[in-house]
Amino acid sequence: MEYELECKVRRLAQGTIDNYDRHLRYMRCYLEDECGITRLEDVKPAHLKRFLLEKEDLGRKPQYINDLLKVFKTFFRYCVEEEYLKVSPAAKVKNVRQPKVLIRTFNEEEVLRMLNYHNGHDFISMRNKAMLALFFDTGMRLTEVMTMKDEQIRDGHVVVWGKGSKERVVPCSPYLARMLMKYRIARDTYFEMKNTTPQAYL
Q: Which CATH fold topology does 108-194 show?
């Protein structure tokens, strides 16, 4: 599919590309089966609105519906840019209102309890404690922590490669810097005994 190639050229993550493909297949099947539409130029805003409304009637959450719409808007904008369409049928379709969600955060006592749970000096304990310290201190995502490399740890900060290969610099607290140093010593000793080299930082 030409649009999939465009996504790869834009260096989107494979998971994102797969998600786009899945959502667009849902739309295409609906347009063909329910509306008898097989040509891009025949798609109207009303068709997309009915599709989204159908998902809402099936109990899908507003976030899911808005994610679908985001994919449709991106796809049809691409079609306009490539001159397959003059106007995007998704351009004027509005997002579903989402309820505000209050995220409960950990309090100081809970954070300390989790950090102190891993109080050993073995490789696994030091790794787990370093990971928790990274999460709490920097707000890094799980995949960002799991794929860290040695060169990302700098003097006083961490270079993070996030979604879309975007780079950001996150400062390290003295506590985190100390945990990472202790972990690196435990890690290097562990892998030296295993006679192998770690593939990522953690």
A: hpI Integrase; Chain A (1.10.443)
CA-nearest of 49, 95, 41 to 70 is 95
Q: Where in the chain is the domain with CATH 1.10.443.10?
A: 108-194
Q: What letter would DSSP give residue 97?
A: P
Q: How many CA atoms lie within 13 A of 69 on its CB side?
A: 26
How many angstroms separate the CA atoms of 61 and 69, rounded?
13
pTM: 0.58
Give the helix ranges, DSSP H, for the chain: 2-9, 14-35, 45-57, 62-81, 108-117, 123-138, 142-146, 174-194
Residues 186-197: tens digit of each pLDDT: 888 888 887 777
